[in-house]
Give the backbone structure.
Amino acid sequence: MNAPRRKPVAVASPSDDELYGITELAQEYGISLRAIRFYEDKGLLAPRRINGGRAYTRRDRVRLGLILRGKAVGMSLAEIEHILALYGERGEGHAAQLEYLIARIDTATAELDQRRRHLEAMLGELGEVRNDLRRALAAKRRGARTAAA
């Protein structure tokens, strides 16, 4: 993912958060407007409505980045939603969120290590079969040359 640009599109007052337009977020993260609307429909993003348009806060922008990162590592939307919900409205569940993510990463790492061992074993077996087949083919060719001579 590219590093996010920080370019607010509108600010209602100095005390409000920076706001971002849907097109800006789509360009920033390299996704379609439809994808952002999909995440909104699923309740993962909650933009403000200003003059009929969507205005996304910094919180929405960060959540979108987390959603995309979760999808990139194979998480389901339900799991991503669970992780986002753990955070809470004011970050009160941040420690629980981090604990969950650490456990999820530990589980994924163990699964990948197991897959790697299985793949390494399969590669070894395939190498042995290939060598056996090459020897059989070489013997067959030698036999064919001997019969032709």
Observations:
- Confidence is low (pLDDT under 50) at residues 1-16.
- Residues 1-87 form a domain with the Multidrug-efflux Transporter Regulator; Chain: A; Domain 2 fold (CATH 1.10.1660.10).
- The radius of gyration is 27 Å.
